[in-house]
Amino acid sequence: MSRCRLLTDEFDARTDRRSAHLYATDAQFRDTAPLDTVTEAIGRPGLPLAALVAMVMEGYADRPALGERATEPVTDPDTRRTTLRLLERFDTLTYGELRERVDAVASEWRHHPEHALEPGDFTVVLGPTSAEETVVDLACVRSGAVSVPLQAGASAEHLAPMVEQTGPRLLVVHIDHLEVAVELAANAHSLGRIIVMDHRAEVTTHQEEWDASRARLAARDRSVALDTLASVIDRGRTLPSLPQVPDGSAADALSALIYTSGSTGLPKGAMYTERLVRQFWVDFVPGQGVRPAITLNYLPLSHMMGRGMLFGTLAKGGLACFAASSDLSTLLEDLSLVRPTEFLVVPRISDMFFQHYRAELSRRTGTGGGAAGPAEQVMEELREKVMGGRLLWAVSASAPPSAGTTAFVEDCLHVRLLDGYGSTEGGIVSLDGRCCARR
């Protein structure tokens, strides 16, 4: 038997033992297990995308669905400026609460007296992955709008051609990127509204950016309405609900337009029909299994693997948490609080793990340690404390890892690091060298 096969069998056996232990001892893990009835129902061929999402929300209504770091406002006594302080816990939203917010947003969009959004209209979304962005993306499915997630952090100059190509009626933006959205609005003549996510009026910088953006829009004489997602949800709760399946829903109806990074030329928009978006929910990674899914999501929804991890988690009735900072400066702390069972590894994350390992090893070298030695102790702490000791599945995304990186990650995390390969246009093409493209 080959060494590769021996290692694979060892990893599989270790994962099975850990899973059995977690089922026996970890209530959160056990309570997050997928339900066979829901899994079978959403796998039915021909099921409309909006109906599939509704089944998930109804089937897991009382479970936690989304989690974000809890915060509290803190005012500096000298400057009187208010910021948000991160707390050492995640606040969660149930599937039922998520569905209620999605329904409210979709209803408000459709019934808006001046800027009603119809099925097939384009909605540009700009911001890091978050609970509110998830609400917006699902509201696009609910209303039949086409979601166009763009790269957060890109300049208005870079994004302008994509906005021009899509002609959006609506632009939804995170408060940190509102300035870019206002710049885009100057020449986006189809645009009627800008809706701001994650706006907290008590935060000084948020309110300053809000006021400045209103002034810039007024100065440019652009009749673009500015609103917050929270206000949209409040109004939508009072409006009639939409039909469960939007008009025009079909397997080949356009549901999302996801632009490539542009690393090989100008960004190109990959057209995702309802049939293709459905694959993010049903068996996104063939053969992954149906263990409980608790994830920390940090890749944007403009990234194919980011979408697959988020919606794949929800499809299994899992808990999808979000990194507290888009620059990943809080990632290790976030991981220790979430204790994920599944994780995506990109090169930057591998580097963070290795830097943490080297720093801890350097600090401990020469100070003794247990019989296992400092190196093994640091790896164990990375696995049990930083990652939380529940990891059962990991896959590399983006650039392929080197053999040395793969070996280090596997030694640390005690799971096999699967080698995933795909593209925006092609979806997942292969997993560990096995073809799994389904487009």
Entry summary:
The protein is α/β, with parallel strands linked by helices and 439 residues long.
Description of the molecule:
This protein has 439 residues and is of the alpha/beta class. It has 2 domains: 3-37 and 280-435, Rossmann fold (3-Layer(aba) Sandwich); 94-249, Rossmann fold, CATH 3.40.50. It contains 16 helices and 16 strands. It has helices at residues 3-25, 27-31, 36-42, 49-59, 95-111, 131-143, 156-166, 178-185, 204-219, 229-236, 274-281, 304-315, 331-338, 347-364, 374-386, 403-413; strands at residues 64-75, 82-94, 122-126, 146-150, 170-174, 193-197, 225-228, 254-259, 269-273, 294-297, 319-322, 342-345, 393-396, 417-423, 427-431, 434-435. The strands form 4 sheets. It has a 5-stranded parallel beta sheet, sandwiched between helices. It has a 5-stranded mixed beta sheet with strand order 12-13-14-15-16. It has a 4-stranded mixed beta sheet with strand order 2-1-11-10. α4 (49-59) packs antiparallel against α5 and α7 crosses α8 (178-185). The model has no long low-confidence stretch (mean pLDDT 91).
Topology, element by element:
Blueprint: H1 3-25, H2 27-31, H3 36-42, H4 49-59, E1 64-75, E2 82-94, H5 95-111, E3 122-126, H6 131-143, E4 146-150, H7 156-166, E5 170-174, H8 178-185, E6 193-197, H9 204-219, E7 225-228, H10 229-236, E8 254-259, E9 269-273, H11 274-281, E10 294-297, H12 304-315, E11 319-322, H13 331-338, E12 342-345, H14 347-364, H15 374-386, E13 393-396, H16 403-413, E14 417-423, E15 427-431, E16 434-435
Parallel strand pairs: 1-11, 3-4, 3-5, 5-6, 6-7, 10-11, 12-13, 13-14
Antiparallel strand pairs: 1-2, 8-9, 14-15, 15-16
